[in-house]
Amino acid sequence: MRDLFQRFGGWLASFFLILVAIWLVGMVLAPNLMTLDYALRPNLPPARIGGPDDIYSLANFTYLANEAVHRTIFLKTIWASGLVTLTTFVVCYPIAFWMAQRATRAQLSIALMALIVPFFVNEVLRTLGWYIILAYRGPLNAALLGLGIIDRPVRWQGDLGVLAGMVYAYILFMLLPIYNAIESLEKAQIDAARDLGAPVWRTHWRVVIPHAKAGIATGCVFTFMLAAGSYVAPALLGSPGSRWFTEIIYNWFFEGGDWNRGAAYALVLLGLCLLVVLVTLRIFRVNLADVAK
Hints:
One of its GO terms (cellular component) is plasma membrane. The chain has helices spanning about 1-10, 10-40, 60-65, 70-100, 105-115, 125-135, 140-145, 160-170, 170-185, 185-195, 200-210, 215-230, 230-235, 245-255, 260-285, 290. The radius of gyration is 23 Å and the shape is globular. It has a domain at about 70-120 and about 155-290: Orthogonal Bundle (MetI-like fold), CATH 1.10.3720.10. Helix 1 crosses helix 2, helix 3 packs across helix 15 and helix 14 (about 245-255) packs antiparallel against helix 15 (about 260-285). By secondary structure, it is mainly α.
């Protein structure tokens, strides 16, 4: 705070702080308080709002606890989001290490261009591209049939399709934090570990990963939060048996017209996501300041 006032002066620093306060109150605090208000009140017709039946209760939350199907979808969404996070990390870590420690300047420029340019396209269109690729008569089945790997088309839509679409959709949110963390690692430390006889896996486990833990934690937090709150990929690439909890929330709001129950479901998802984030930060022994860097 003191550095801010010393750098920009009293008036300009105060203006920045006021803008941040307005953003926090108007875009973060107020919407969440309104959501909590909706979640604690019953779904009533307009004429009965404010009447004797309009009282605060936990009925909308207990409904989720008692609804077995919704509870199962909620738990599935959480572990599936964890699987998306793990898969994205497995895909991104070798790429990030190569970009940070092995790639030349020209190779790095080409790799960044190839990764970033597709994200200039809207997420819905990119997900539709995956829908076409994974379609029953799509190019993936055609290629596998042509190579003789499968003898008949496979229906890829479902859990596998959602996993592939989400890994692709959120790859940059995992890749770039890890890349930035590994880039600051001195190559001499990796060379020293190799000279001392450490195998490749031990070098990564004892040298690279501990150094990049803040970047890994940041990527995992971003990816998990985005995956748990995703709607487009499950809606387009999923099947009736692979519904996501966000689809249930959407149905309560826009099809069932029960904003109160939808708000309760949304708060439960938000609360558990925050819990997972705090646990992740505790496991990696980093704090929010490290994630914000």
